[in-house]
Design goal:
By secondary structure, the chain is an alpha+beta fold. The protein has 11 helices and 7 strands.
Amino acid sequence: MADRPVTLLEKSEVLAGLFAVWDSIAALLDGLPEGEWLSASPLPGWDVKALVSHMIGTESFLAGVAAPQPDIDVSALDHVRNDIGAMNECWVRHLSGEPGAAVLERFRAVTADRRAALAGMSDGDWNAVTPTPVGPESYGRFMRVRVFDCWMHEQDIRDAVARPSSDDALRGPASELSLDEIAATMGYVVGKRAKAPDGSRILFDLTGPVGRSIRVDVDGRARVVDDFGDRRPTATIRMDGLQFSRLSGGRPMSPARARDIELDGDKEVANQVIEHLNFVI
């Protein structure tokens, strides 16, 4: 079987999105009252502090810093489902007793270290194949996954503290790159998860500030395409782009945006796709 093609991405564009979302998270957390660090997030078992601790842990891992030893068997926790989840939980428990301001300073410190390392990375290293959450891929694709992860967690935090992103804030490079990452999985979602029948042509018509059109053609296998040629979609799913990202990440929809989902064409297949949008481990 032929090796899967590697995704090569422009380093400056991905880093612009990654650094922007780190800046946005730090600004959101700056001066956050201590009680709000303990606000429940949309992710089971995690409050705001846990979300930030998770991001600290991932960037620390990428900087070569080992996870702290946990005080319990974290793999036994209900919301821990794999080795990555167990590593995340080590950092969550390690930082849970720290005040929010100290956790924010740690976030700023590790992301500053990562900025310097990433800015100094050669193109060869950036394009080199490495293990990633989406399989063997370029390091650049891994960093686009990091943009997606951090951007999703920013929205989680905003939901938790009732400070939703403005439309203008949602139009930046981080949301664009995050939608790129989600779009790249839609062939898998439509074909493998939703099992859309051969001949299906699914159009995701995403509205609002995180808007775009994503087309998936099922012809032997499901793949994302630029257009359907002269053929019409067999099913259309029209919804707010941020809400689409929430469902793709296994989250409840944001209370701050319209939750309507409009279906055209083969509504049975469209509903199958919606029910299987969540691709996040």
